[in-house]
Amino acid sequence: MIFALRAQIGGESVPLTGALKREAFTLTRRLNEKGMRIIAVAHREIDNRRRRYSADDEKELVLVGLIGFLDPPKESAAAAIDGLERLGVEIKVLTGDNEVVARAICEQVGISVKRTLAGPQIERLSDGELRETLRSANVLAKLTPLQKSRVVRLLQDQGKTVGFMGDGINDAAALLAADVGISVDSAVDIARESADIILLERA
Predict the structure, then answer these.
(1) Do residues 196 and 181 make contact, with C-beta atoms less than 8 angstroms apart?
(2) What is the rounded average pLDDT for all residues in the chain?
(3) Judging by DSSP bridges, how do beta strands 163-165 and 180-184 pair with one another?
(4) What's CA 86's distance to the chain center, in Å?
(5) Are 145 and 170 in contact (CB under 8 A)?
């Protein structure tokens, strides 16, 4: 979501029109479809320096550009996923990324997207409704940490043994909730501490 009122183009501040917003969103989606995460960069000049700033200061911003981040999957990911599926392991993707990025990454590693579900949709579902939806949904995007752990718990309610792999702060609750929490030695401290298994070598 863009909170800026103006945009900086060619060193000049101009109104952030509907056309410029559409251009920004179109570019963002195009980059998302390549698996890139995007951050909008905006600024505002403040006359008096303060010791504290709040969300109220994040208004009347000037959009200066977009930054794209690419975190490509490991070359071994597709083979590992194929191996798990051959062993009868059901793969579900739980991510904080948006649906477009999640689909792009799934395509790169050979995961067939059957049905996607987003965090805001999950929030509106009762446990019973979500439990039933999880039978077909295999890509869950824009999830909060608590939504990830809720999905893990509801999969367990279906009688499934759940392994969860994650390396970030947002994965800690799900790692704890899973029957087997898996992380890596380069993960953040809380993820390593929440995991049952830590992978020490790169595949």
Answers:
(1) yes
(2) 92
(3) parallel
(4) 27
(5) yes
Q: For 135-179, what is each residue's pLDDT tens digit?
A: 999 999 999 999 999 999 999 999 999 999 999 999 999 999 999
What pTM was computed for the model? Answer: 0.82
| DSSP code at position 72 | P
Contacts of residue 58, Cβ cutoff 8 Å, sequence gap at least 6: 3, 44
Give the residue from 76, 92, 100, 79 showing the smallest Cα distance to 133. Answer: 92
Give the residue carrying structure tokens 């995460």. Answer: 37
Q: What is the pLDDT of residues 88-142, one digit of tens each?
A: 999 999 999 999 999 999 999 999 999 999 999 999 999 999 999 999 999 999 9
Determine whether 151 is exposed, middle or buried from the number of CB atoms within 10 Å of its CB (0-12, 13-18, 19+). buried
CA distance 147 to 124: 12
* Structure tokens belonging to residue 143: 């999830």
Tokens 């900086």 map to which residue? 8
21-27 long-range contacts, Cβ below 8 Å, gap at least 24? Answer: 24/63, 24/66, 27/66
By C-alpha distance, which of 145, 186, 140, 180 is closest to 167?
Answer: 186
Q: How many residues does the chain have?
A: 203
